[in-house]
Amino acid sequence: MDGEGSPPSVEQGSGEQDDVSATTRKRRDRSKTIVSERKRRVRMKEKLYELRALVPNITKMDKASIIADAVVYVKNLQAHAMKLKEEVAALETQPMSPAVRQQHQQQQQKQNAAAGRRQQGRGGAPSADSDGEEGSPGPAGARVTHVGATQVGDGRFFVTVECERRDGVAAPLCAAVESLACFRVESSSLGRSGPDRVVSTHVLMVHTHEKNKFFVVRSN
Amino acid sequence: MDGEGSPPSVEQGSGEQDDVSATTRKRRDRSKTIVSERKRRVRMKEKLYELRALVPNITKMDKASIIADAVVYVKNLQAHAMKLKEEVAALETQPMSPAVRQQHQQQQQKQNAAAGRRQQGRGGAPSADSDGEEGSPGPAGARVTHVGATQVGDGRFFVTVECERRDGVAAPLCAAVESLACFRVESSSLGRSGPDRVVSTHVLMVHTHEKNKFFVVRSN
DNA sequence: GAAGACACGTGATTC
DNA sequence: TGAATCACGTGTCTT
């Protein structure tokens, strides 16, 4: 309780026989634990740097922020990996002759930002892609070429929107995602998926009081 | 050097009337820093638990091992995602004559066989949503708390903008960045930098014909 | 000078 | 018994 400093000052000079052994033992023990603790700190710091090296988008060098950035990065990565896996599965099971694939690409011009609870893989279609209506001209005029949504956790969804790459597309894209009132944007990122395509990925969290409105549409 | 001075009883006669104020100030400062440091530790620990909840196979609860496990997990996840992405690209662009597809499937099987241990998120982690988010009913108009810009290449700049966390901040943030007419947004991402802060990072590319208009302002 | 981050040495606890 | 991990308060350094 009383945080009084134990003075490490030496009181030698009087006792000889076991006094010396006691003090030496104590001191040796102290230095051992000290160096051990130091090594422990170094180990953790190195691991932290190692982690930081793996995470792109490091915002602050701050120790806690490194872990925080790693957390959101891992979340995005997990979601992305899951989505890719499903995509692979879908592509593998569907033979997709060239004609069909071409049609598929053309058909994927959907720009529904209000894709609320509309994911019904009807007829056992395992695709998580929601089927939108006709693509109306976007806010910036860029056509959306792909929209995907996948549940990646309890009330958490991974959403990807791909559209043409034009100047000023990011803001309406973010606005569209944020306009989903029952979601909260947990993280989002924008990058290029081709010479003329940008893709924005988001992790959305359902507001807790709306959680029961959503359910999973399992693919298989 | 040896920081003594805990006894708040008497100071030497140098101070006339500052004796009480000096000790009070010192003590207040002490407790302030103490509680601040304590909060820092708590923050880091929470972030660490949050990270641990994301990593499926946690070997030891040890603090450094958590980061180590996270490191190897992120490495695996990155590799896995890259492989999946290549796979998707290959599947999408292949004309897929029957022979080719068969070969591809064989290759697929080999990959699956080689990847003996699979780590798929399974570790039923309890909901680590430590942050009780509150519905702040604010429209846009969140205050920007930090802006940074660094040149990271030839005509390429890394820009960070931090502001208050409100619903719907991402879109105006992107709009603001995109409104810089002489830049093109190469990539951008949005995440949280604190319980009440969001930070958006962007990589901007100067349009080539404007490149000579910009130069570096070195900070230190 | 106030605030924040970090490394340090140390007491407590666990295996 | 020691080795190892953690939380703590503190000094120092940078904003």
TrEMBL record, chains A, B:
The keyword Transcription regulation applies. GO terms for cellular component: nucleus. Residues 101-118 have a biased composition (Low complexity). The keyword Disulfide bond does not apply. PROSITE patterns: BHLH (PS50888). Belongs to the bHLH protein family. This is BHLH domain-containing protein. It comes from Eleusine coracana subsp. coracana. The gene is ga20589.
